[in-house]
Protein backbone atom coordinates (compact mmCIF):
# COMPACT_ATOMS: atom_id res chain seq x y z
CA UNK A 1 0.00 0.00 0.00
CA UNK A 2 2.78 2.37 1.02
CA UNK A 3 4.84 1.52 -2.09
CA UNK A 4 1.90 2.05 -4.47
CA UNK A 5 1.12 5.34 -2.71
CA UNK A 6 4.70 6.48 -3.25
CA UNK A 7 4.52 5.48 -6.90
CA UNK A 8 1.34 7.54 -7.34
CA UNK A 9 3.00 10.53 -5.66
CA UNK A 10 6.09 10.14 -7.85
CA UNK A 11 3.89 10.02 -10.97
CA UNK A 12 2.05 13.19 -9.89
CA UNK A 13 5.33 14.99 -9.20
CA UNK A 14 6.79 13.96 -12.55
CA UNK A 15 3.65 15.17 -14.31
CA UNK A 16 3.81 18.45 -12.38
CA UNK A 17 7.44 18.91 -13.43
CA UNK A 18 6.55 18.24 -17.05
CA UNK A 19 3.48 20.45 -17.14
CA UNK A 20 5.04 23.88 -17.79
CA UNK A 21 6.85 22.45 -20.81
CA UNK A 22 3.93 20.50 -22.25
CA UNK A 23 2.42 23.24 -24.46
CA UNK A 24 5.63 23.87 -26.40
CA UNK A 25 5.95 20.14 -27.14
CA UNK A 26 3.08 20.50 -29.59
CA UNK A 27 3.17 24.03 -30.94
CA UNK A 28 1.54 23.76 -34.38
CA UNK A 29 1.03 27.23 -35.88
CA UNK A 30 -1.37 27.57 -38.81
CA UNK A 31 -2.84 30.20 -41.12
CA UNK A 32 -6.52 29.68 -41.83
CA UNK A 33 -9.79 31.18 -42.96
CA UNK A 34 -13.24 30.58 -41.51
CA UNK A 35 -16.68 31.73 -42.77
CA UNK A 36 -17.35 33.87 -39.67
CA UNK A 37 -13.94 35.60 -39.75
CA UNK A 38 -12.74 38.39 -42.04
CA UNK A 39 -9.50 37.58 -43.89
CA UNK A 40 -6.77 35.11 -42.97
CA UNK A 41 -6.04 34.40 -39.31
CA UNK A 42 -3.32 32.76 -37.26
CA UNK A 43 -4.20 29.74 -35.20
CA UNK A 44 -2.95 26.69 -33.34
CA UNK A 45 -3.71 23.22 -34.61
CA UNK A 46 -4.67 21.14 -31.57
CA UNK A 47 -2.44 18.20 -32.39
CA UNK A 48 -1.81 16.52 -35.73
CA UNK A 49 -5.17 16.44 -37.51
CA UNK A 50 -7.00 18.34 -34.74
CA UNK A 51 -9.17 21.46 -34.74
CA UNK A 52 -7.94 25.06 -34.64
CA UNK A 53 -7.68 27.62 -31.85
CA UNK A 54 -8.04 31.18 -33.17
CA UNK A 55 -5.11 33.13 -31.71
CA UNK A 56 -6.81 36.48 -32.39
CA UNK A 57 -9.64 35.46 -30.07
CA UNK A 58 -7.04 34.99 -27.31
CA UNK A 59 -5.14 38.20 -28.07
CA UNK A 60 -6.58 40.58 -30.71
CA UNK A 61 -3.27 42.50 -30.88
CA UNK A 62 -1.42 39.53 -32.40
CA UNK A 63 -0.41 39.85 -36.08
CA UNK A 64 -2.68 38.23 -38.65
CA UNK A 65 0.10 36.73 -40.83
CA UNK A 66 2.81 34.21 -39.98
CA UNK A 67 5.65 36.37 -41.30
CA UNK A 68 4.66 39.30 -39.04
CA UNK A 69 4.20 36.84 -36.15
CA UNK A 70 7.71 35.42 -36.65
CA UNK A 71 9.24 38.90 -36.99
CA UNK A 72 8.18 39.63 -33.39
CA UNK A 73 10.05 36.57 -32.14
CA UNK A 74 9.72 35.35 -28.57
CA UNK A 75 7.12 38.02 -27.68
CA UNK A 76 4.47 36.48 -29.95
CA UNK A 77 5.59 32.88 -29.37
CA UNK A 78 5.09 33.28 -25.62
CA UNK A 79 1.52 34.49 -26.26
CA UNK A 80 0.89 31.42 -28.42
CA UNK A 81 2.23 29.18 -25.64
CA UNK A 82 -0.17 30.77 -23.16
CA UNK A 83 -3.04 30.30 -25.61
CA UNK A 84 -2.15 26.62 -25.96
CA UNK A 85 -2.16 26.17 -22.18
CA UNK A 86 -5.54 27.93 -21.78
CA UNK A 87 -8.82 26.08 -22.28
CA UNK A 88 -9.91 27.91 -25.42
CA UNK A 89 -12.73 27.09 -27.85
CA UNK A 90 -11.60 24.91 -30.74
CA UNK A 91 -12.93 25.43 -34.27
CA UNK A 92 -13.70 22.03 -35.83
CA UNK A 93 -11.37 21.15 -38.69
CA UNK A 94 -14.36 20.88 -41.05
CA UNK A 95 -15.19 24.56 -40.47
CA UNK A 96 -11.81 26.05 -41.42
CA UNK A 97 -9.81 26.35 -44.63
CA UNK A 98 -6.12 25.77 -44.06
CA UNK A 99 -3.76 28.12 -45.88
CA UNK A 100 -0.03 27.49 -46.28
CA UNK A 101 1.57 28.19 -42.88
CA UNK A 102 3.75 30.79 -44.62
CA UNK A 103 2.56 32.85 -47.58
CA UNK A 104 4.61 35.36 -49.61
CA UNK A 105 7.99 34.73 -47.96
CA UNK A 106 10.94 36.81 -49.14
CA UNK A 107 12.43 33.64 -50.65
CA UNK A 108 11.94 29.92 -51.16
CA UNK A 109 15.34 28.24 -51.21
CA UNK A 110 15.54 24.65 -52.55
CA UNK A 111 18.24 22.01 -52.34
CA UNK A 112 18.89 19.46 -55.09
CA UNK A 113 20.18 15.90 -54.63
CA UNK A 114 20.34 16.15 -50.85
CA UNK A 115 19.43 12.55 -49.99
CA UNK A 116 22.09 9.85 -50.24
CA UNK A 117 19.50 7.30 -51.43
CA UNK A 118 18.14 9.76 -54.05
CA UNK A 119 21.68 10.16 -55.47
CA UNK A 120 22.01 6.37 -55.68
CA UNK A 121 18.68 6.23 -57.54
CA UNK A 122 20.09 8.58 -60.20
CA UNK A 123 23.49 6.89 -60.30
CA UNK A 124 25.22 10.18 -59.54
CA UNK A 125 27.90 10.95 -56.93
CA UNK A 126 26.86 12.58 -53.65
CA UNK A 127 27.41 16.36 -54.07
CA UNK A 128 30.51 17.91 -52.46
CA UNK A 129 28.63 21.14 -51.74
CA UNK A 130 24.90 21.97 -51.65
CA UNK A 131 23.10 22.37 -54.99
CA UNK A 132 20.85 25.41 -54.54
CA UNK A 133 17.94 26.57 -56.68
CA UNK A 134 14.70 28.42 -56.04
CA UNK A 135 10.95 28.54 -56.48
CA UNK A 136 9.03 31.81 -56.70
CA UNK A 137 6.80 32.49 -53.68
CA UNK A 138 3.81 32.66 -56.07
CA UNK A 139 4.03 28.85 -56.39
CA UNK A 140 2.96 28.38 -52.74
CA UNK A 141 -0.52 26.97 -52.05
CA UNK A 142 -2.22 25.46 -49.01
CA UNK A 143 -1.91 21.91 -47.68
CA UNK A 144 -5.19 20.71 -49.25
CA UNK A 145 -5.24 22.91 -52.36
CA UNK A 146 -5.26 21.56 -55.89
CA UNK A 147 -2.12 21.20 -58.01
CA UNK A 148 -2.87 22.52 -61.50
CA UNK A 149 -1.24 20.70 -64.42
CA UNK A 150 0.13 23.43 -66.74
CA UNK A 151 -0.62 22.95 -70.45
CA UNK A 152 3.08 23.67 -71.14
CA UNK A 153 4.23 20.42 -69.48
CA UNK A 154 3.51 16.72 -69.96
CA UNK A 155 5.97 15.56 -67.27
CA UNK A 156 4.75 16.80 -63.87
CA UNK A 157 6.30 14.83 -61.00
CA UNK A 158 6.04 14.54 -57.20
CA UNK A 159 8.65 15.25 -54.49
CA UNK A 160 7.98 15.15 -50.73
CA UNK A 161 10.34 17.41 -48.74
CA UNK A 162 11.00 18.62 -45.22
CA UNK A 163 10.70 22.42 -45.23
CA UNK A 164 12.49 24.64 -42.74
CA UNK A 165 10.95 28.01 -41.85
CA UNK A 166 13.32 30.79 -40.77
CA UNK A 167 12.39 32.73 -37.63
CA UNK A 168 15.25 35.20 -37.24
CA UNK A 169 17.10 37.44 -39.69
CA UNK A 170 20.73 36.58 -40.39
CA UNK A 171 23.66 36.66 -42.81
CA UNK A 172 26.95 34.72 -42.60
CA UNK A 173 25.38 32.44 -40.01
CA UNK A 174 27.67 29.81 -38.47
CA UNK A 175 26.42 26.23 -38.54
CA UNK A 176 26.70 26.13 -34.73
CA UNK A 177 24.30 29.12 -34.50
CA UNK A 178 21.96 28.08 -37.32
CA UNK A 179 19.16 26.50 -35.25
CA UNK A 180 18.72 29.79 -33.39
CA UNK A 181 17.50 31.19 -36.74
CA UNK A 182 14.93 28.42 -37.29
CA UNK A 183 11.28 28.89 -36.29
CA UNK A 184 10.16 25.38 -37.17
CA UNK A 185 9.32 22.83 -39.83
CA UNK A 186 6.53 21.92 -42.21
CA UNK A 187 5.76 19.48 -45.02
CA UNK A 188 6.40 20.56 -48.62
CA UNK A 189 5.51 19.11 -52.00
CA UNK A 190 8.12 20.25 -54.53
CA UNK A 191 6.01 19.66 -57.65
CA UNK A 192 8.33 19.53 -60.66
CA UNK A 193 7.82 19.75 -64.44
CA UNK A 194 10.69 17.49 -65.54
CA UNK A 195 10.62 18.50 -69.22
CA UNK A 196 11.25 22.13 -68.26
CA UNK A 197 13.68 21.22 -65.47
CA UNK A 198 15.84 18.78 -67.44
CA UNK A 199 15.62 19.73 -71.11
CA UNK A 200 14.11 23.19 -71.65
CA UNK A 201 15.20 26.67 -70.47
CA UNK A 202 18.90 25.83 -70.95
CA UNK A 203 18.48 23.10 -68.28
CA UNK A 204 18.13 25.78 -65.62
CA UNK A 205 15.74 24.29 -63.04
CA UNK A 206 13.76 27.39 -62.10
CA UNK A 207 10.88 27.36 -64.62
CA UNK A 208 10.24 23.63 -64.19
CA UNK A 209 9.93 24.13 -60.43
CA UNK A 210 7.91 27.30 -60.18
CA UNK A 211 4.61 26.99 -62.07
CA UNK A 212 1.65 28.27 -60.04
CA UNK A 213 0.51 25.73 -57.37
CA UNK A 214 3.88 23.88 -57.50
CA UNK A 215 4.67 24.40 -53.79
CA UNK A 216 1.97 23.08 -51.42
CA UNK A 217 3.00 23.63 -47.77
CA UNK A 218 1.51 22.64 -44.43
CA UNK A 219 -0.55 21.77 -42.63
CA UNK A 220 1.23 23.56 -39.76
CA UNK A 221 4.49 25.24 -38.85
CA UNK A 222 5.63 22.90 -36.07
CA UNK A 223 8.05 24.84 -33.86
CA UNK A 224 11.55 23.45 -33.49
CA UNK A 225 11.09 22.73 -29.77
CA UNK A 226 8.16 20.47 -30.69
CA UNK A 227 10.27 18.22 -32.94
CA UNK A 228 12.55 15.71 -31.23
CA UNK A 229 15.08 15.45 -34.07
CA UNK A 230 14.46 16.91 -37.55
CA UNK A 231 17.23 14.65 -38.89
CA UNK A 232 15.44 11.46 -37.87
CA UNK A 233 11.90 11.69 -39.27
CA UNK A 234 10.14 9.18 -41.50
CA UNK A 235 9.21 10.84 -44.79
CA UNK A 236 6.92 9.41 -47.45
CA UNK A 237 4.80 10.23 -50.49
CA UNK A 238 1.75 8.35 -51.74
CA UNK A 239 0.10 8.72 -55.14
CA UNK A 240 -3.50 7.41 -55.22
CA UNK A 241 -2.75 5.53 -51.98
CA UNK A 242 0.36 3.76 -53.30
CA UNK A 243 3.63 4.50 -51.48
CA UNK A 244 6.07 5.94 -54.04
CA UNK A 245 8.66 7.52 -51.72
CA UNK A 246 9.65 6.20 -48.29
CA UNK A 247 12.81 7.21 -46.46
CA UNK A 248 14.10 9.08 -43.42
CA UNK A 249 15.55 12.57 -43.05
CA UNK A 250 18.68 10.89 -41.63
CA UNK A 251 19.58 10.30 -45.32
CA UNK A 252 20.21 14.03 -45.86
CA UNK A 253 23.66 14.77 -47.31
CA UNK A 254 23.81 18.30 -45.88
CA UNK A 255 22.06 18.83 -42.56
CA UNK A 256 19.85 21.85 -41.85
CA UNK A 257 22.57 23.74 -39.96
CA UNK A 258 25.03 23.31 -42.84
CA UNK A 259 22.46 24.41 -45.42
CA UNK A 260 21.67 27.60 -43.49
CA UNK A 261 25.39 28.37 -43.06
CA UNK A 262 26.06 27.73 -46.76
CA UNK A 263 23.15 29.75 -48.20
CA UNK A 264 23.61 32.65 -45.76
CA UNK A 265 27.04 33.30 -47.31
CA UNK A 266 25.16 34.54 -50.39
CA UNK A 267 21.86 35.96 -49.11
CA UNK A 268 20.29 37.38 -45.97
CA UNK A 269 17.66 35.15 -44.39
CA UNK A 270 14.47 36.84 -43.17
CA UNK A 271 11.68 35.55 -40.89
CA UNK A 272 9.27 33.49 -42.98
CA UNK A 273 11.85 32.37 -45.54
CA UNK A 274 11.39 28.72 -46.51
CA UNK A 275 14.09 26.14 -47.23
CA UNK A 276 13.07 22.92 -49.02
CA UNK A 277 15.74 20.45 -47.94
CA UNK A 278 15.59 17.89 -50.78
CA UNK A 279 13.65 14.75 -51.65
CA UNK A 280 14.25 11.02 -51.11
CA UNK A 281 14.19 8.39 -53.91
CA UNK A 282 11.04 7.22 -55.67
CA UNK A 283 10.21 10.17 -57.94
CA UNK A 284 8.36 9.39 -61.17
CA UNK A 285 10.99 10.49 -63.68
CA UNK A 286 13.51 7.80 -62.62
CA UNK A 287 11.01 4.93 -62.78
CA UNK A 288 11.20 2.49 -65.67
CA UNK A 289 9.18 3.50 -67.57
CA UNK A 290 8.81 7.04 -66.13
CA UNK A 291 5.50 7.86 -64.41
CA UNK A 292 4.02 11.36 -64.25
CA UNK A 293 1.02 12.92 -62.54
CA UNK A 294 -2.28 13.07 -64.40
CA UNK A 295 -5.63 14.75 -63.87
CA UNK A 296 -7.54 13.13 -60.99
CA UNK A 297 -4.47 11.86 -59.10
CA UNK A 298 -4.20 12.50 -55.37
CA UNK A 299 -0.78 13.06 -53.80
CA UNK A 300 -0.21 12.70 -50.06
CA UNK A 301 3.08 13.95 -48.63
CA UNK A 302 3.67 12.94 -45.01
CA UNK A 303 6.45 13.52 -42.49
CA UNK A 304 6.52 12.00 -39.02
CA UNK A 305 5.57 14.50 -36.25
CA UNK A 306 4.67 17.19 -38.83
CA UNK A 307 1.57 15.81 -40.54
CA UNK A 308 0.26 15.11 -44.02
CA UNK A 309 -0.69 17.37 -46.93
CA UNK A 310 -3.11 16.12 -49.59
CA UNK A 311 -3.27 17.65 -53.05
CA UNK A 312 -5.62 16.67 -55.88
CA UNK A 313 -4.19 17.06 -59.39
CA UNK A 314 -6.45 18.98 -61.80
From TrEMBL:
Pfam short name (any one): FAA_hydrolase
Keyword annotations: Hydrolase, Metal-binding
Keyword Glycoprotein found: no
Domain of life: Eukaryota
Listed GO biological process terms: oxaloacetate metabolic process
GO MF term list: hydrolase activity; metal ion binding; oxaloacetate tautomerase activity
Gene3D superfamilies reported in the protein's UniProt record: Fumarylacetoacetase-like, C-terminal domain (3.90.850.10)
Domain Fumarylacetoacetase-like C-terminal per the UniProt entry, residue ranges: 107-314
Family label: Belongs to the FAH family.
Protein name: Fumarylacetoacetate hydrolase domain containing 2A
Organism (species): Pan troglodytes
Amino acid sequence: MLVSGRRRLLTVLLQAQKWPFQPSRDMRLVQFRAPHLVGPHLGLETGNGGGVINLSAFDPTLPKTMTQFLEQGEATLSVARRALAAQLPVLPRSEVTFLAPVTRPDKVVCVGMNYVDHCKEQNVPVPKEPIIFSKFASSIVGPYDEVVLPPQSQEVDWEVELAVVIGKKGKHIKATDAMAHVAGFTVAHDVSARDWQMRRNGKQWLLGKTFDTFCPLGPALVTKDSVADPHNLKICCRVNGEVVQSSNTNQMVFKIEDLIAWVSQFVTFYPGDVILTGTPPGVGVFRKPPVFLKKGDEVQCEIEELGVIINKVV
